[in-house]
């Protein structure tokens, strides 16, 4: 900056006073109530459930006796193999026999959420083979397979062993609920009580 520029600058700044430093930044954190959280969760669930199609022409048809399997990335092969053999106890069953597709979708989605809240990691879904279903055989089975692949909480599924319903049922592995993740993290925290 030359002398002329500096004198012009000083002339312009002659009446300026610095701001006082006692300004306070106010951050107001929005605190949501339990009711608001419940409504928000219900809305999210309704949106997710609405994405599960009820149009039979938008699902890939499965054969009544076909063995089906699905596994997301991150599920270990040994874990998936044990699931396929019925090696994990399923204390929670969802029976979709005799339900219309819309009822089955509601029941399936709701029961998965309930199972996760209870801490269930493996559930069984029973839908039957549907050999005589219309517009094509295994309609309910085809819907269930399609829906489960779209539900983020479902990590894997496999057709059940014959003793548990065979190709008319599925073993389903669920992701841990957020509460169970926190509990597991606290339980397995390395270095706790170690000196």
From TrEMBL:
Keywords: Endonuclease, Hydrolase, Nuclease. Coiled coil: none annotated. It holds the Pfam family Smr. GO terms for molecular function: DNA endonuclease activity. Residues 94-175 form the Smr domain. This is DNA endonuclease SmrA. It comes from Shewanella pneumatophori. The lineage of its organism: Bacteria, Pseudomonadati, Pseudomonadota, Gammaproteobacteria, Alteromonadales. The gene is smrA.
């Amino acid at each position: 900056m030359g002398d002329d520029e500096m004198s012009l600058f000083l002339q312009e700044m002659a009446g300026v006073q610095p701001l006082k430093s006692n300004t306070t930044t106010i951050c107001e954190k929005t605190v949501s109530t339990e009711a608001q959280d419940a409504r928000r969760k219900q809305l999210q669930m309704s949106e997710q459930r609405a994405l599960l199609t009820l149009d039979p022409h938008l699902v890939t048809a499965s054969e009544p006796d076909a063995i089906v399997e699905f596994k997301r990335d991150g599920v270990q092969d040994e874990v998936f193999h044990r699931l396929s053999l019925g090696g994990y106890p399923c204390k929670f069953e969802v029976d979709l026999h005799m339900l219309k597709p819309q009822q089955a979708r509601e029941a399936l989605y709701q029961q998965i959420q309930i199972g996760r809240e209870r801490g269930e990691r493996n559930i069984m879904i029973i839908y039957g083979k549907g050999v005589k279903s219309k517009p094509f055989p295994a309609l309910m089975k085809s819907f269930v397979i399609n829906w489960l692949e779209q539900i983020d909480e479902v990590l894997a599924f496999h057709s059940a062993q014959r003793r548990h319903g065979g190709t008319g049922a599925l073993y389903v592995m669920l992701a841990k609920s957020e509460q169970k993740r926190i509990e597991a993290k606290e339980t397995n925290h390395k270095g706790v009580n170690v000196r």
